[in-house]
């Protein structure tokens, strides 16, 4: 099951595990990536398609159901949420 809250990292930095780990620890959520070249552009294209069909009650989930499956890259480091609490 995919968590309700997650980060989908795209672009060049999505290949850097240390950056992904910081994202995961700061936001206390798992970080996923897509093994697709130009994945940031792909996401923008899906949003554009959704904008065109949204008035016909087509959900974003329906638009992206054939998209490449994101893969789990990193999860929050245990105890990291304690460091970021005020």
From TrEMBL:
- Which keywords has UniProt assigned to this entry? Kinase, Transferase
| InterPro entries recorded | ATPase_NBD, FGGY_C
The biological processes this protein is annotated with in GO are: xylulose metabolic process
What GO annotations for molecular function exist for this entry? D-xylulokinase activity
Annotated Gene Ontology cellular components are:
cytosol
A Pfam family it matches: FGGY_C
Chain coiled-coil ranges: none
What superkingdom does the record give? Eukaryota
Q: For the Carbohydrate kinase FGGY C-terminal domain, which residue ranges apply?
A: 3-50
Q: Which family does it belong to?
A: Belongs to the FGGY kinase family.
Under PANTHER family, the record lists: SUGAR KINASE, XYLULOSE KINASE
The protein depicted here goes by the name XYLB kinase
- Identify the species of origin: Rhagologus leucostigma
Gene symbol here is Xylb_1
């Amino acid at each position: 099951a995919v968590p309700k809250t997650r980060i989908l990292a795209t672009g060049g930095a999505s290949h850097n595990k240390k950056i992904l780990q910081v994202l995961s620890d700061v936001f206390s959520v798992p970080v996923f990536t897509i093994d697709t070249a130009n994945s940031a552009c792909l996401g923008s294209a899906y949003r554009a398609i959704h904008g065109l069909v949204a008035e016909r009650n087509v959900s974003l989930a329906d638009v992206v159901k054939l998209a490449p499956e994101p893969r789990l890259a990193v999860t929050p480091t245990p105890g990291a949420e304690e460091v970021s609490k005020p």
